[in-house]
Write a structure and sequence with these properties.
This protein has 5 helices and 8 strands. The chain is α+β, with helices and mostly antiparallel strands and about 180 residues long. It has 2 domains: about 80 residues, ACT domain (Alpha-Beta Plaits, 2-Layer Sandwich); about 70 residues, ACT domain (Alpha-Beta Plaits, 2-Layer Sandwich).
């Protein structure tokens, strides 16, 4: 039996720039997540997230989040009437000797695109790591800044995949080592 837990997570500055959702997918591959709402700033972030999976696996994912000292509030929990989506197969591109690259992407999701678990799909399909650096969610539009790093072919494959899904992708400039705002 599958369960669905809707959670509200509050991150403090120390966690805002960490790849938490990407890491959660790697640790709990039998739990699907989808971000319902996300507001990310330099100092804090609030995320409403749905976790779907077997009860024991969803509990383990929630315990992982709690272990990071992320403030977690359960908004709802219960049986999931839907079936677990097919876990996308990881798409491997040719391995290269090229160094890891990082790209800052600005993603624009329109209408029903916001309901698809694109970040979960990326973390399952591609050998990349990502972190969300900024986000704003409105009724019809969501805009997200994502820093993505991995082999050049993998990063390019993610961009191509997102565009194939109808998501507007624009490039920005950022460095993983670059601060995202003034220190206070």
């Amino acid at each position: 039996m599958l369960v669905k837990h809707r959670l509200e997570l509050r991150f403090q500055r120390a966690h805002v720039q960490e790849p938490i959702t990407c890491e959660m997918t790697r640790r709990f591959n039998s739990v699907m997540f989808n971000i319902d709402h996300l507001t990310v700033g330099v100092q804090s972030a609030t995320m409403r997230l749905a976790l779907v999976g077997k009860a024991v696996d969803v509990k383990a994912a929630k315990d992982y989040l709690k272990s990071l000292n992320v403030s977690l509030k359960v908004l709802s929990s219960g049986r999931c009437k839907d079936e677990f989506p097919d876990v996308p197969m990881r798409m491997f591109t040719e391995k290269s000797d090229q160094p890891t690259v990082e790209r800052k992407l600005w993603l624009t999701f329109l209408g029903t695109q916001k309901r698809r678990p694109f970040l979960w799909e990326i973390s399952r399909r591609f050998d990349v790591t990502f972190k969300i650096t900024q986000s704003s969610t409105g009724a019809e539009v969501a805009i997200m800044s994502l820093v993505l790093w991995g082999a050049p072919a993998e990063v390019d494959a993610v961009v191509a995949y997102l565009r194939e899904q109808g998501i507007n992708v624009e490039f920005g400039q950022a460095s993983l080592a670059m601060p995202f705002g003034p220190d206070e």
